[in-house]
Specification:
Ribosomal Protein L24e, Chain: T; two-stranded antiparallel ribbon; 4 strands
């Protein structure tokens, strides 16, 4: 399964390691993804999602429904 956030869509980005001698080699920056069980009070169920830590912090701040609305997604997208 891909390392992609279910809500924000964060995924792997690419960059370069630069050594002291300025030699450049390619590298990957993996998204900080975690599996989380989220409680959805509208449905009364828990759902298991792959979420980035950025999305988790935003859910703590705004709430799940408000964050989904801001991202243009619905609860059906998570199920």
């Amino acid at each position: 399964m891909s390392r992609r956030c279910a809500i924000s869509g964060k995924t792997t980005t690419f960059g370069r390691n630069v050594s002291f001698s300025k030699r450049r080699t390619n590298r990957r920056f993996e998204a900080n993804i975690h599996y989380k069980n989220l409680y959805v009070p509208e449905l009364g169920v828990h759902i298991r999602c792959q979420l980035s830590t950025h999305a988790l912090r935003t859910i703590d701040k705004k709430g799940l429904a408000a964050y989904l609305k801001d991202e243009g997604k619905t609860l059906r997208d998570l199920l």
